[in-house]
Fold this protein.
Amino acid sequence: MARIEFWYEFASNYSWLAAVRIEDLARDAGHEVVWRPFLLGPIFRTQGWTSSPFNLFPAKGRHMRRDMERITQARGLPLVWPAVFPANSLVAARLALVGEKHGFVAPFSRAVFAAEFQEGRDIADRALLAEILTALGIDAEAMLAEAGSPEIKAALVARTEEATARGIFGAPSLFTPDGELFWGDDRLEQAIAWMADHPA
Amino acid sequence: MARIEFWYEFASNYSWLAAVRIEDLARDAGHEVVWRPFLLGPIFRTQGWTSSPFNLFPAKGRHMRRDMERITQARGLPLVWPAVFPANSLVAARLALVGEKHGFVAPFSRAVFAAEFQEGRDIADRALLAEILTALGIDAEAMLAEAGSPEIKAALVARTEEATARGIFGAPSLFTPDGELFWGDDRLEQAIAWMADHPA
């Protein structure tokens, strides 16, 4: 069983599209998904972008919104656009790193994405994040406390530095075991096919 | 028979990928392709970009180069990266507009793209453009003269203004008869499928 690294940002709508389907696609191909939450904001800022390119470049943003409507319709996914976009994903990302330690990163991440893009809720809201944790049977208060620890804060900074060092510039990004970088939900099938042609 | 508009920029490598296959895909679906050359440079400049985003954002550029290698390998296409990237596509685009008048826009455009990305040549070179026209059995000298006429210069400016007015921000871009905009070679299949589901 080979591992595909799935690098995602909670504020990223295309990351949501990939999060919904990557486990099924990988499992059907006999692979395992390694969930790797990171922050795209610091990377965008090094490019001189103070917000999402979808906000900075309105025509690009308009196409993206329509692209999302078409894709979710074709995939039978509900889409409720969040009032705040891009969301402040800092606490959610720290919680996802806590989830890596405690084994709940994948279901937590899927639930965060669903709240954001299927219900239109603001994932910066700690009460929402607590609600998601509780619904997963996880001690929300303890996990939120751990998410604020110096260890987790440093881990998220290190994660995002690793993303930059490995050439990530957007989300979602995928790494195959031989180090190939694939960017975008629309490259997911290519990454899986690449793994079949290039066994680790 | 419905018409799909194919908006492309000669300096754009993803436009090349689409130019290679759009006629076959459209014909198989019973549609006709309308070739619409335009210039992306003026649109990028309104976004504050003085060059291709692949040059301005090196990590994005590195991924794109690898993405192109993987895609061309999978499609069995030769790829020789041009020494000058992005190319100055002004004269080629004006010649393509001349080609719209005289009925050679599609074969001329495919030949320009092939010289650029399959042979790595600089399409800013008027001698190369003349060679391409001559190989197509077209009077190169007359067409180059017409490409420099005020009428054609104005037509290219108007074309690029139309692109902006219709929401184009990148290339290739596709318009279906009901006005849907699809961006990217990787949305070509979606655009064709859209036309099947939404007959004009």
